[in-house]
Amino acid sequence: MKSRRRPYAEQRPQDLGGGVCSVPVPIPGNPLGYTLVYAIDSPPGPVLIDAGWNHPDAWAALSGGLATLGLDVSAVRGVVVTHFHPDHAGLAGQVRQASGAWIAMHESDAALVRLMAEYAGAEHDAFQADMLRRAGADPGEARQVAGERPAPPALPDRELRDGDLVDLPGRKLRAVHTPGHTPGHICLHLEDADRLFTGDHVLPDITPHIGIYPYDRDDIDPLGDFLDSLDRVSELGPLDALPAHEWIFPDVAARAAQIRHHHEEKLERLRALLAQRPQPLTIWEVAAMMTWNRPWDELPPPLRGMAAGEAAAHLRALEAKGHVRRLPGVDAVRFHALDS
Prior knowledge:
Residues 34-245 form the Metallo-beta-lactamase domain. By secondary structure, this protein is of the alpha/beta class.
């Protein structure tokens, strides 16, 4: 089954067959429009894949959509969160309150949720300001980029690792660790039906945000992790993909290969751009040089912040490959290209 992305107003809950349903849940004020929440039926009650944004309209859509499909939110057995972002984990706590359901996510994202819950607002603002300064943003722009922080999602009751089977009696749903978009992103392989719930890891038309925060970390390589995770998904074969956004599509392996090629081309373009510049560049300067869905000057400040995170991830991947070198500085870290 394949359903093209349409505006949220045109979306409807669907019975996808084989004991799997989908419910579109709106994301207020976001161009993505909605998150596709999936429900897998089982004798003790359905298990949800993701839950949607924490907003009254989203809750009405989720609970009402399940009811349309003959499912009661109060009967939900569990929620498996593909990753901690608010459009996926936001309503998990409310589902738990309504039903007593457990919440599960990968242990790496669970650690981040605990950290977020302990982080005060003032500390977060100071962290953001220092991160932007080290990236090369001027103070005025840094103040504009730092936006309001969403409330942390509910703490999970269960933590998953790669290869774990989800508590889903009568079905075989296995966690596949696919870091990159977040450290603990998971896809979920419904092995008894040759379906893969891909979260944000593999989407049919767009690609997920891969960033580094703080921007100048040199101990992680999320883009490298993401590319490796694409290979892992490709190895599962031409499964039907049930993503969290856009539409359902066949042959996840083919799409994973396309996304890998896209990022490899992007890395090569960036390496070539840096090689043309005689002076080292800050992360902010590199982000302004890269190609986005609109010109840099037209990006609103919060999107510039995300673009800088993505530029940082690409720079880190090039550094890991030995194509660029970072030069730490008092004001900001800078990068320059090495000879091929």
